[in-house]
Amino acid sequence: MSLTLNARVPGGALADKWDKHRFDVKLVNPANKRKYNIIVVGSGLAGASAAATFSELGYNVSCYCYQDSPRRAHSIAAQGGINAAKNYQNDGDSIQRLFYDTIKGGDFRAREANVYRLAQISVNIIDQCVAQGVPFAREYGGLLANRSFGGAQVSRTFYARGQTGQQLLLGAYQALEKEIAKGGVSMFPRSEMLDLIVVNGRARGIVVRDEVSGTIEPHLADAVVLATGGYGNVFYLSTNAKGCNATAIWRAHKRGAAFANPCYTQIHPTCIPVAGEYQSKLTLMSESLRNDGRVWVPKRREDVGKKPGDIPESDRDYYLERKYPSYGNLSPRDIASRAAKEACDDGRGVGPGGRGVYLDFADAIKRLGEDKIRERYGNLFEMYQRITDENPYAVPMRIYPAVHYTMGGLWVDYNLMSTIPGLHVAGEANFSDHGANRLGASALMQGLADGYFVLPYTIGDYLATARPESLAADASEVKAAVADVAARTTRLLGVKGKRSVTSFHRELGRIMWEHCGMARDAAGLTKALELIPSLREEFWQDVSIPGSGEELNQTLEHAGRVADFLELGELMCRDALHREESCGGHFRTEHQTPDGEALRNDAEFTYVAAWEYAGEGQPPILNKEPLVFENVRLAQRSYK
Amino acid sequence: MNLTLRVWRQAQSDVAGALVEYQAIDVNPDMSFLEMLDVVNERLISAGDVPIAFDHDCREGICGSCGMMINGVAHGPMKGTATCQLHMRSFRDGDIVVIEPWRARAFPVIKDLVVNRSALDRIIQAGGFISTPTGGAPDGNTMPIARQASDSAMDAAACIGCGACVAACPNASASLFTGAKISHLGLLPQGQPERYRRALKMVAQMDLESFGGCSLFGECQEACPKEISIDVIARMNRDFLVAAVAASEERSGGDEG
Ligand SMILES: Cc1cc2nc3c(=O)[nH]c(=O)nc-3n(C[C@H](O)[C@H](O)[C@H](O)COP(=O)(O)OP(=O)(O)OC[C@H]3O[C@@H](n4cnc5c(N)ncnc54)[C@H](O)[C@@H]3O)c2cc1C
Ligand code: FES
C-alpha cells in the first residue's frame, strides 16, 4: 500500500461529531472569500447546490456542465422522492432510524460517521427546498405528504408527483442562476472536463474542451469539486442519460485520486424491459410503484405465454411477498432485482425473450379506484404506455432490472476530499454514503446534503488551512495537462478506423452486463478481464470518428467517454473479482446462503477497497480503509 | 417500415444550411424517433460521413435537451410528447419526414438540429427564483400551503425548458416559458415577496433577448410536451401590469407624502 487513507472522522459520540467538526473547522475570513476561486464540475443536485452556496458565501465560482444548460443534469430524471427523517407521520422515524436503515441497506459497507451526518442533515434539506419554492406534494390540510420506499418501514419520502428530481434540481438551478446574475458564478455549459491539473500535489484546475468551438483550455482555481454523477453507462444500457460519463472522475483517478468500490453497482428492479437491438437506453419505472403494485410471475413455466388475465390467482407466484413477508414488494432493490432474475432464469419470465416480470395494479385499482391510482402515478403510467403501447390500467406492467446507480466512486474522507488535496467529490461521483447498496430516495438526499450543507464548511477549512499560493497560467504542469488532452484528441481522430463508437460501447456493455452484472463469479470476471483489454485495443485501432476536433463533434465526445469506460470497466471487474463475498449490489454466486441470499464475509472484507492508479499497463494498487462499526452491530441483512 | 427523411444540415452557425435527403430503412415501430436517427447516423458513420447533430440526453422527456421540428410541428405529431418519447408507430411506411431545428431569432443554429437556447437561462437569471440563501429556512411544515395552490404551482413548474413553445409560436415568443416560471413561484406563498419585481424583470429580459411578443395564438400550449396551459401567460400579464403600475407610481410618486 502506498497511499494513506485517512478518513479524518472527528472524535466524540456519533451524534456529536458533525456539530463538533463544524465548530473545529477553520473559517475563511469573509473579506478573503472573494479572493478564492473554486471550480465546480457538474450542475446536478450536488454541483448546482454547491456552486450556488459557495457563491452566496462570497467565493468566486466557475461551474461546468456538458449539456447546453445546467438545468439538464441527469438529476432532473429522478422520479420517486427524497428521504428525510422528519417524522412528520409520527410513525417512529428518527435520525437514528434513517441512519440505521441506510447502513443496513448498504449491507454494512459504508462509513458510520458519514451516514449519520447525512441523516442529520436530511431534515434541513427539506426546509431549504420548501423555502426555494419546490412544490412538494401536500395533504389536504396543507402539510407535506410522504410515501414509502424500499428498505424502510416508515413513510419518510418527500415527493413532487413523479418529478421529484426535476423540482429539486430546478430549485438548485434557480439558486445557481440567481448567483450567476449576481456575478458570483461563471457558468460554462457545453463544456467538458477532460483532465485534472495537479500542481505540487494539489488539485489546481481542470482542462476543458468547449464543445462548440473545440478549443481546449486550462481553467485554474484554488480548489476543485467534481460533482459529475455516476458511471452506470459503462453498461451501455442503463437508466442514465446518454451523456452520463466517468471521464471527469476517471481522469482524476489517473492523476492520483483513489477509486473506491468500483464494483458496487445498483441494478434497479423496476425498469421497462429491453425491446430490441436498437435500444439506446432503459427507462425506469419509479420504485414508488411498488407501494401499490404487486410483483409476480406464473408459477408454472407452461403459463408464460398466456395472457396475464387468463392466469388465475392460484397459478401466480407473488415471489417477493412469498420470500420476504415483512417487506414484501418493498424489499430493497438488490434483493428485488435478484429475485426477478432468478424467476426469469427459472424459465418463468414473461414478455419478449422471457426477461420480464409483472407489476400488477389490479388489486390496488380494485381497492382504491382507478382515479386514486391515476392521481398517484398518472405520469408514470403514461410514460409506460407511450413506450410499450400497452395500457397498464388494464394489463399489468412488464418490468425487468436495469443498471441504475453506482455506489462506487472516488474515495473521499469525512470532508469529501479525495486523496488529492484540494480535490473534493460530491454526489453520485463519490463513494461515500451508500455502502454496497443505495436505498431508494437517498441519492437526492446525499447530493443536496453534500452541496448545500457539507462542502460549504469543509472547503473553507481546506482553503483556510492550505492557503493555496498563486499559480501562473503557463506553469509547466498546466501546459503539460493541456498538451495531454490535445494529444489524446488528435489520437482519437487519427485512428480513422471502420467501427462506430456506439458498436464498441454496446459490446463493452454486453460484457459488463453478462459478467459484472446482477450475479458475478470468478470464471466470468476472469473472462471479462481478458475480453475488455482486447476490445480496448481494437477500439484504438479501429474506431471511426468522422469530422474534426474544431467543431461540435458529438461522436468525438462519445468516443472520449467510451475510451474511459473501457479502462474503468476493467477496474470494476478486478474489484468484483477480489471481493470474495456477496454484499448489497455485489453478488458473487460462490458466496450465498443456502436459501440464496447474499453472504458477507465480515472477517475479511469489512473495508473500503480504494484502488490507486499505478501507470499505463501496471495493475492498480489496492488500498484498504477498514470500516469500524461502533454504533451498530453487523448483522446478516434480513427483510423476511 | 421505410421512410424518407429530409434533414436540415448546417455545418456551423455562420454558414448556409439546406435540407438533405436520407433513407431510413427497416425502421421498427417500437423504436423511438431518436433511435431511428441513431440508426441513420450509424449508417452515415460507417460510410465515413458526418452524422446528424442533435441535442438529447435523458431520452425520457424530462431534461428538455431534445427538440426538433418534425414536418413543421415542434416535437412532432404526438400531443404532450417530447421528441425523445415519440415512437415510430406514429409514422407509416413510405412517409416523408422533414426534420428541422427550432427556428427563432433568439435561438441561433449551432450545427444541424442543435440550437443555442441560452436566452432561456438568462430569463431565469433575471428573476426566476426565490432569494433564499442556503441555511436558515424555517421548518418545512411551518407554513401549510393549500393543496390546490401547490398543485397549480406544480402544473406550471413541470416546464422542461425545451423551447418548443418558442419554436411553435408565429412570433417566436417565450411567453409560455416565462409565464410558467412566474406562475410556479407566484402561486406559492414563498414566492410572494418578489412576485411583482420578478414579473417585471423576467418580462424585460424576454424582450431584450429578441423573442417576439405574444398574440395569444395558443400554438405554444399545443406544442408543449408538458401541456402547460396558456393560462400562465394571462397570469404573467396580470402580474406584470400590477408591477408596471406600481413602478410608475413609485417613479412619479412623492405627491402623497
Ligand atoms: C432515472 C433515475 C431516477 C432516479 N430516481 C431517484 C429518486 O427517486 N430518488 C433518489 O434519491 N435518487 C434517484 N436517482 C438517483 C439520483 O437521481 C442521482 O444519483 C443523482 O441525481 C445524481 O446527482 P449528481 O449531482 O451527483 O449528478 P448528475 O445530476 O448526474 O449531474 C452530473 C453533472 O455533471 C456534469 N458532467 C458530467 N461529466 C462531466 C464532464 N466530464 N465535464 C463537465 N461536466 C460534466 C453534467 O453535465 C451534470 O451537470 C435516480 C436516477 C435515475 C437515473
Ligand atoms: S432527451 Fe431529455 S427531454 Fe428528450
Across the major sheet of chain B, the strand order is 2-1-5-3-4
Number of helices of chain B: 8
- Number of separate strands of chain B: 7
For this structure, the quaternary state is: heterodimer
Order of helices and strands of chain B: EEHEEEEEHHHHHHH
CATH architecture of one domain in chain A: Alpha-Beta Complex
Biggest interface: A-B, 79 and 77 residues
Number of β-strand runs of chain A: 19
What is the CATH first-level class name of the largest domain in chain B?
Mainly Alpha
Give the % helix of chain A: 25-40%
Fourth CATH level, the homologous superfamily of one domain in chain A? Succinate dehydrogenase/fumarate reductase flavoprotein, catalytic domain
Q: List the uncertain runs of chain B.
A: none
Round the mean pLDDT of chain A to the nearest integer and report it. 96
The CATH topology of one domain in chain A comes to Flavocytochrome C3, Chain A, domain 1
The major sheet of chain A is characterized as:
5 strands, parallel
Task: Summarize the entry for a quick read.
In chain A, 37% of the residues lie in helices and 14% in strands. Chain A contains 17 helices and 19 strands.
Report on the architecture of this protein.
The complex is a heterodimer of chains A (640) and B (257). Chain A is of the alpha+beta class and 640 residues long. Among the domains of chain A are: 267-404, Succinate dehydrogenase/fumarate reductase flavoprotein, catalytic domain (Flavocytochrome C3, Chain A, domain 1, Alpha-Beta Complex); 484-605, Up-down Bundle (Methane Monooxygenase Hydroxylase, Chain G, domain 1). Chain A is built from 17 helices and 19 strands. In chain A, the strands form five sheets. A five-stranded parallel β-sheet of chain A has the order 5-2-1-9-17. Chain A has a five-stranded antiparallel β-sheet with strand order 11-15-14-12-13. Chain A is globular and about 75 Å long. Chain B folds into two domains: 3-111, Roll (Ubiquitin-like (UB roll)); 118-256, Fumarate Reductase Iron-sulfur Protein, Chain B, domain 2 (Orthogonal Bundle), CATH 1.10.1060. Helix content of chain B is 36%, strand content 11%. Chain B is elongated and about 65 Å long. The model of chain B has no long low-confidence stretch (mean pLDDT 95). The termini of chain B are far apart. Chain B has 257 residues and is of the alpha+beta class. Chain B is built from eight helices and seven strands; from the N terminus they run ββαβββββααααααα. Chain B has helices spanning 33-46, 118-127, 147-157, 164-168, 175-186, 195-208, 219-223, 231-252; strands at 3-9, 18-24, 69-70, 73-74, 96-100, 109-111, 114-115. Chain B has a five-stranded mixed β-sheet with strand order 2-1-5-3-4. A two-stranded antiparallel sheet of chain B has the order 6-7. The chains are: A alpha+beta (640), B alpha+beta (257). The interface between A and B is large, with 79 and 77 residues. The structure holds flavin-adenine dinucleotide and FE2/S2 (inorganic) cluster. Flavin-adenine dinucleotide binds at residues 41-47, 64-67, 73-75, 77-82, 164-165, 192-193, 227-230, 239-240, 244-245, 247-248, 284, 404-405, 427-429, 440-444, 447 of chain A.
